Amino acid sequence: MENKFNDLRYADLIWKKIKNEISNEEQAELTAWLQADVQHQEAYEQLMARENVRAAMEFQESIDTQADWESVLARADTGRAMRPYRKVLLAGLAAAVLGGVVLVGYNWSRITEEKKITAEVKKLPVIRPASNTATLTLGNGKEVKLGSQLGVIQETDGTDINQQNGALQYHKGATNSEELIYNLLTTPKAGQYQLTLEDGTRVWLNAASSLRFPVHFGKGEREVELTGEGYFDVAQDPSKPFKVKVREVEVQVLGTGFNIGAYENEVKTTLVSGAVKVALNGNHSWRLKPGQEARVSNTGVNIGKADVEKITAWKDGVFFFRDDDFRDIMNEVARWYDVSIRYEGNVPVKRITGNISRQAGLPQVLEMLSFVSGARFKINGRVIDVM
Fold first, then answer.
1. Are strands 160-163 and 151-154 parallel, antiparallel or unpaired?
2. What DSSP assignment string belongs to 2-53?
3. Are residues 123 and 234 in the same domain?
4. In this model, does residue 233 exceed pLDDT 60?
5. For the segment 340-365, what is each residue's pLDDT rounded down to a tens digit?
6. How far apart are CA 379 and CA 213, in angstroms?
7. Which residues form the Protein FecR C-terminal domain (predicted)?
8. Is 73 in the same domain as 187?
9. Residue range of the domain that includes 349
10. Residues 49-98: pLDDT tens digits?
11. How many domains does the chain have?
């Protein structure tokens, strides 16, 4: 994901060119980029047309007040802090220059209309993105609230659970007991967490999800239960197959990386590496190859090619959309920021492609989505009205 926001770098250079703030070194970098592709040059010339430059400058001036925005500093690959309005503006520039690599569908003629949206955004309450927060339920029913603090939690069988930097790591204690003690890790909306199981398997748990697992595995199969969404990097042990149960679906692996999403009315298993077998109700099963996904719903099972980059982007801190439905995107935003969505009037039908940092403030995300969908947003408490 290291090149995810390189496109913003060129938008940054173009913006500096517009404002006559570009250095000689930056001009050379921009020139090289323009010469690399004739489409870059054509888009650049269109952007630099007098009316587009004037519209961009007017838009920038209308929101150039840091106090009007939530104190969020989003960073692009330039390595410099960027004011929220500037990130939004550059996303629009990048969309126009790069044909939608960052956010498609931006229309410069709508900038005057967007000023009205900006005025509404300025009044929004501070709603922060998800953070490392979860609840751990121990074998005796005791609940432990987790954050980013340091510490050691101990289970009744002597298992040490190290808590550090938003992650848990299990270490088997000095016990010969074969009794399985189960823990439950639950993330709320606007929460996420990581853990390393006793066998070395790493799990990333997305917002509004849960994982039930034994604090140490016995002699047989390694089995866990998931709700919501999780990414698994399974430690290899051919003698102990690893199984993930999600409702009526069971995913069996030996050692591999895969994602399971079960938020809506389907269970989607995406294989990144290795091999998995997806079974339905303990009967029929299907083997996946890397780059494939299995979708299980009440209409049946569908095996097809997966968009691995898009599906696993959440683990790397990115909202990644590729020809996605507006409602699906808003559902993801709702989980991440712990808000509810209420629709008034027609729902935008435009498919959306783009990527946005998951650490961006909610106003920033809504502003970008407004650019590409034509929707207007109004926040009442923790409810987003889509108009």
1. antiparallel
2. TTTTHHHHHHHHHHHHHTT---HHHHHHHHHHHHH-HHHHHHHHHHTSHHHH
3. no
4. yes
5. 999 998 888 888 888 888 888 888 88
6. 38
7. 319-384
8. no
9. 6-127+345-386
10. 544 455 444 444 443 333 333 333 333 333 334 344 444 444 555 544 44
11. 2
